[in-house]
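Fold Annotation — chain and its backbone

Encoding — discrete vocabulary of local shapes
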Amino acid sequence: MEDLSMKRSWQSRDWSRFIKLFRGLTFYERFEQAIILTLIALIMLVTAVATIHLIGAVWHLVVDVGIDPINQTIFQAIFGAIFTVIIALEFKHSLLVVLAQHENVIRVRTIVLIALLAIARKFILLDLHDVTAIELFALSAAVLALGIVYWLVREQDARVARDAREQAHLEDNPAARCEPERSSS
């Protein structure tokens, strides 16, 4: 729910609020925010160009070549391009979250998710006739390791959020701190 309200507040483009927040930042924090804005603009440009190329490739596939369901290479290339756009959008979104929440770092969970998307893209583009068993094993091990890291980080984030909710509950309800714990004997 908090993410939705944060998203709405950012999308409303309340620039006066943004300028007030920007004035309250230190020089280095302003520098970080400017770099993030620049990166967002560059990612948007790259994503737009990649999307235009994707549209051109699909148009060429449909109009000029005709869809050939037997030609696996064409489908791999198209879906690889789609994943490239999805990865760029996810990366841009993670930067927007950092910008909107005034965090100093991108969360590890986001980086791991982007890495998982990149490896999924690699699996889609993989030609099983040209890949060795070692390469396939290495990619599989990378997916497994990233999946485990993602799960561990997600569990840690859930624990931190749960502890923060409990702490907020105790601060909002002082009587809850004074009540003795009841044991079920």
